[in-house]
Design brief:
Helix 14 links the parallel strand 10 (357-361) and strand 11 (384-387). This protein is 44% helix and 13% strand. The strands form three sheets. Strands 3-2-1-4-5-6 form a six-stranded parallel sheet, sandwiched between helices. The chain has helices spanning 17-28, 40-47, 58-68, 77-83, 104-117, 136-149, 170-175, 187-197, 209-240, 244-252, 273-286, 292-316, 344-353, 366-376, 390-394, 407-410, 414-419, 434-439; strands at residues 10-13, 33-36, 71-73, 86-89, 124-128, 156-160, 180-183, 204-207, 324-328, 357-361, 384-387, 399-402, 424-427, 443-446. With 464 residues, it is an alpha/beta fold. It folds into two domains: 10-207, 3-Layer(aba) Sandwich (Rossmann fold); 222-446, NAD(P)-binding Rossmann-like Domain (Rossmann fold).
């Protein structure tokens, strides 16, 4: 408890996307928060008010909570264990080679926390915020903590509390979550977590730890299914001569469906959907079940890259060998510098395999893309180059592929068109307004839309 207020202190173990956003949200709601990360460079940066990733609003929120004194960084897991009454584990659970989640980083962190808790006489609640398959909180985290720390269930509580954050909107999602899901098996843990979340004034759902873990995977799987559904419909829309956005707008107006995650594109990426679907399908296999819808969503996502290449070849009017393709947008979505599972990676690989030269640009994710590329392609190639300006990336391009709909690209400048050898744009997000494309002299081939910009029937509008 805080010596000054007698109120519980929140601890965050792991200050990445989820951990930092969670800690800052608790601090903004009035709780005292201490954070720890195993990487010293991360601790130093955050203690000085600098974030280690690009996300709108996180930097200003961090500075505000550091000034308030409600958020501070500690230098050891021992200090975190002594200071925090409730420790949230926000450690990575990456995908393993077989699709199952790699629990080694979490297991290592749990062992370290367990050793730190040996000398802490007071009750502690440990909450798993990391995304883990059902059964992990009790079977791995709880069992390991009790074995290593020597604490009984009366001295230490274990709970699950999955996150539902979206990159690009971390601040609003963490400050105003749509709901809170608690996986609890004892009354004291439930009371503590309900108290911590009371200032957020949102619906709270209480389940078992395995139930809460299943909610997380079920939610992400359903959203991924919606994305893959829209992508399948986009291919049909092109074939029948209509606009996928018109179709999905009408479909999403049904309250039983909802409009979100029905925007067709090159496929889903990021740190969650692909990883979670693979882990969930593998967990189902371990339980002697099959998650067929998840398997299908993954297959559609992989096939969407092949469809992108068909659009590119159509725009190029034939072979890509010897052609120069500008790829605009390397992050998996706008608003973040995260390139994990970004469709820009397989698209670049495929373009190079077809003999093209790729010139890439992104407002914030270029360095991360370069690092990700080097991890899987250690031999450098002169046919993939990254640029710091749009105009440089477009120089001499035979066509351009718009992969991430950053506002910068949507406000296309006529001077950019003039840098291209052939003013053709493959718009994978239908981000560029057709009238804008005509005004700047571009011919557009859009995913999910049958006719190039300026031709065909006008966009259908809803009746007033």
């Amino acid at each position: 408890m805080s010596a000054k207020t007698g109120r519980p202190v929140v601890g965050i173990d792991g200050l990445g996307f989820v951990g930092l956003a969670t800690g800052l949200a608790f601090a903004a709601r009035g709780w005292n928060v201490v954070g720890f990360d195993i990487k010293s460079q991360v601790r130093r940066a955050i203690a000085r008010g600098r974030t280690t990733f690009h996300e709108e609003g996180v930097g200003s929120l961090l500075k505000a909570q550091l000034r308030s004194g409600r958020f501070r960084v500690v230098e050891s897991i021992n200090e975190l264990a002594r200071a925090a009454d409730c420790v949230f584990l926000c450690l990575p659970t990456p995908s393993g080679p077989d699709g199952r989640i790699d629990l080694r980083p979490l297991a290592t962190g749990v062992e370290e926390l367990g050793r730190a808790l040996r000398t802490v006489p007071e009750y502690r609640l440990v909450v798993v915020k990391s995304t883990v398959v059902p059964g992990t909180t009790e079977e791995l985290v709880g069992a390991t903590l009790r074995r290593v720390s020597g604490k009984t269930s009366r001295q230490m509580g274990i709970a699950a509390n999955p996150e539902f954050l979206s990159e690009g909107s971390l601040v609003p999602d963490s400050l105003r979550p749509s709901r809170v899901v608690l996986g609890v098996s004892d009354p004291r843990a439930a009371r503590t977590l309900r108290r911590l979340y009371r200032p957020f004034r949102v619906p709270v759902f209480e389940l078992s730890p395995s139930g809460a873990e299943l909610v997380k995977y079920s939610a992400n799987s359903f959203l991924a299914l919606k994305v893959s559904f829209a992508n399948e419909i986009s291919r049909i829309a092109e074939s029948v001569g209509t606009d996928v956005d018109d179709v999905m707008e009408a479909v999403g107006s049904d309250p039983r469906v909802g409009p979100k995650f029905l925007s067709a594109g090159p496929g889903f990426g990021g740190s969650c959907f692909d990883k979670d679907l693979r882990a969930f399908t593998r967990k189902a296999e371990d339980l002697h079940r099959r998650f067929r819808l998840g398997e299908a969503a993954l297959q559609v996502n992989e096939e969407q890259v092949e469809h992108v290449l068909r659009l590119v070849r159509r725009a190029a009017k034939g072979s890509l060998r010897g052609k120069t393709v500008a790829l605009l947008g390397l992050a998996f979505k706008e608003g973040t510098d995260d390139v994990r599972e970004s469709r820009a990676l397989p698209i670049s690989e495929a373009l190079l395999a077809l003999g093209a030269t790729v010139r890439g640009h992104d407002p914030v994710a270029t360095a991360n893309f370069a690092r990700a590329w080097r991890r899987t392609h250690p031999r450098p190639t002169s046919r993939l180059r990254l640029f710091t300006s749009v105009s440089s990336a477009l120089e001499g391009a035979d066509l351009v592929v718009l992969q991430t709909p950053w506002p910068l690209y949507c406000s296309w400048r006529p001077a950019w068109t003039q840098r291209m050898r052939d003013p053709v744009l493959v718009d994978l997000r239908r981000a560029l307004n057709p009238s804008k494309a005509i005004a700047v002299g571009l011919r557009v081939v859009a995913l999910g839309r049958a006719s190039p910009a300026g031709k065909g029937s006008p966009r259908r509008r809803r009746a007033p």
